[in-house]
Design brief:
Layout: E1 3-6, E2 11-14, E3 21-26, H1 37-55, E4 59-66, H2 82-90, H3 94-111, E5 119-122, H4 127-139, E6 143-146, E7 149-152, H5 168-175, E8 190-194, E9 210-212, H6 214-226, E10 230-236, H7 240-255, E11 260-266, E12 269-271, H8 286-291, H9 296-304, E13 312-314, H10 316-338, H11 345-360, H12 365-376, H13 382-395, H14 417-431, H15 435-447, E14 450-454, E15 459-463
Parallel strand pairs: 3-4, 3-10, 4-5, 10-11, 12-13
Antiparallel strand pairs: 1-2, 6-7, 7-8, 8-9, 14-15
Helix pairs in contact: 2-3, 4-6, 6-7, 9-10, 10-13, 11-12, 12-13, 14-15
The structure holds adenosine monophosphate and zinc ion (ZN).
Length: 464
């Protein structure tokens, strides 16, 4: 039984799709810049959900949007459209900006083995649908016109805030919403913005020339392709307040019923324990990781080892350790690939069951990875290799390319600083006869691909 944590209920729930194919909407990129590793963590998460569903035998109908208009600099309807700003700064039209960054985005996700959802929907291809959606909201009395746009009337939707469980006051403080005297409530949000003549991307509408708000885009395209009630809606945790609250308000106002069964949110990636930001110069791209000698799939391996609902701290040392562990895994599997031996069915079945239990417990990939690691340490057998390939339908780590590394005489290894620190802490624990802690730290090192060999004089750190 597949269980998924639903942000709305804050509980793990049994997953039961509405129809034959699982319908899933994933908030996609705003294509005004390169995707950074934090953004990409969120798409690895989306991909893992899709892979686990497929492993369970479900057919999928997934939609991901490409936001090429309407995402303002702040979530509170303030500031310039991100596309317009990039266009001004990079001296290209917003269309050129969108086309370029969209193509790089698809190259990036392909390198990370992230499968493309069945339907990719560009916001600018759906302006008419959005206008119709806004008209329907006005007709139902949920939206009103001001001199600068059409706004959703939050006062008419008493359930506002049920996803984030924040009071309206907290939401307003968080979103720094602009003071607009024409709005009925400070948290009312724009469905449509009237455009100044210099605004490049603008379309005709019943309210003059303008462009859609960011939130209406997702509600419109989800409804258009997936219908009034979908199984899963995914995004990053930053979407919970504002973006997804607004989507819920619009869509439930229109349908008069709930429109999403399960809300899933991926936690953030941090860098060196802090926020990722351009000004700190720590928003790395896949191209930059490659320049530093990292395989994109080592980054995927790095993401898979932390559960999607936990924060993941990125450092180059930890990525290095992941790359080492990933290569070690491929090497160990290489021995199984070459083998002509068999393994007992009962042993294989046990691994299969453990793996399924892990992935079906709210997509617990770190636990599933532990099952794989234990399995590859079995005596070399072609059955183990075949089962690892089965598991790789979920991991997406190209395990078919496994190749045994040639054994060199004790190669001198470059041990990353964080590994050295853990090994030292373990040695201290051992000296203090704190065996539990010592064992725990040994397990941590093993997960990162290292072993410590103790002797009377001290210890040495080795790979694998
Ligand atoms: P954007 O292109 O800015 O709309 O963001 C694309 C996706 O990346 C969204 O789903 C965000 O929730 C997600 N995201 C942004 N920053 C991070 C981060 N530091 N860690 C994980 N996901 C992020
Ligand atoms: Zn969205």
């Amino acid at each position: 039984m597949l269980k998924i944590f639903n942000t709305l209920s804050r509980e793990k729930e049994e997953f039961k799709p509405v129809g034959k194919a699982v319908t899933m909407y994933s908030c996609g990129p705003t294509v005004y810049n390169y995707a950074h590793i934090g953004n990409l963590r969120t798409y690895v998460f989306m991909d893992e959900v899709r892979r686990v569903l497929k492993y369970n035998g479900y057919k999928l109908k997934g939609v991901m949007n490409i936001t090429d208009v309407g995402h303002l600099l702040s979530d509170g309807d303030e500031g310039e459209d991100k596309m317009q700003k990039a266009s001004r700064e990079q001296k290209k039209t917003p269309w050129e900006i969108a086309e370029y960054y969209t193509s790089v985005f698809f190259e990036d996700i392909a390198q990370l083995n992230i499968g493309k959802p069945e339907i990719i929907a560009k916001a600018t291809d759906h302006i008419d649908d959005m206008i119709k959606y806004v008209e329907a909201l006005i007709e139902k009395g949920y939206a009103y016109e001001t001199s600068d746009g059409i706004y959703f009337d939050i006062g008419k939707f008493p359930d506002y805030g049920k996803l984030s469980r924040l009071s309206l006051d907290d939401q307003i403080a968080g979103a720094r919403v602009e003071v607009n005297s024409e709005k009925r409530h400070p948290a009312d949000f724009a469905l449509w913005k009237k455009a100044a003549p210099e605004h490049i991307m603008q379309w005709e509408s019943p309210w003059g020339m303008g462009f859609p708000g960011w939130h209406i885009e997702c509600s419109t395209m989800s409804r258009k392709y997936l219908g009034s009630l979908i199984d899963i809606h995914s995004g990053g945790v930053d979407h919970i307040p504002v973006h997804h609250e607004n989507e819920i308000a619009q869509s439930e106002a229109l349908e008069g019923a709930k429109t999403v069964n399960t809300w899933m949110h991926g936690e953030f990636m941090l860098v060196n324990g802090g926020k990722m930001s351009k000004s700190l110069g720590n928003t790395y791209t896949i191209a930059q990781l490659k320049e530093k000698g990292f395989d994109p799939l080592s980054f995927r391996y790095f993401c898979l080892n932390t559960h999607y609902r936990k924060k993941l701290n990125f450092t180059f040392e930890s990525l290095e350790a992941s790359q080492t562990a990933y290569r070690r895994l491929l090497s160990l599997l290489g021995a199984h690939k070459k083998s002509t031996q068999n393994t007992d069915t009962s042993v294989l079945d046990k691994y299969k069951a453990e793996f399924l239990e892990a992935i079906n417990d709210d997509i617990n990939l770190p636990l599933a990875m532990g099952v794989l690691w234990t399995m590859v340490k079995e005596k070399p057998s072609k059955d183990i290799f075949a089962l690892a390939l089965e598991f790789d339908k979920v991991f997406g780590l190209n395990l078919k390319d496994a190749k045994e590394e040639e054994k060199k005489d004790e190669p001198a290894i470059e041990v990353p600083e964080d590994i050295k620190a853990i090994a030292e802490e373990r040695w201290e624990a051992r000296k203090n006869k704190d065996w539990a802690k010592s064992d725990e730290l040994r397990a941590v090192l093993a997960q990162k691909g290292y072993v410590v060999v103790d002797s009377k004089e001290g210890y040495t750190i080795k790979l694998g």
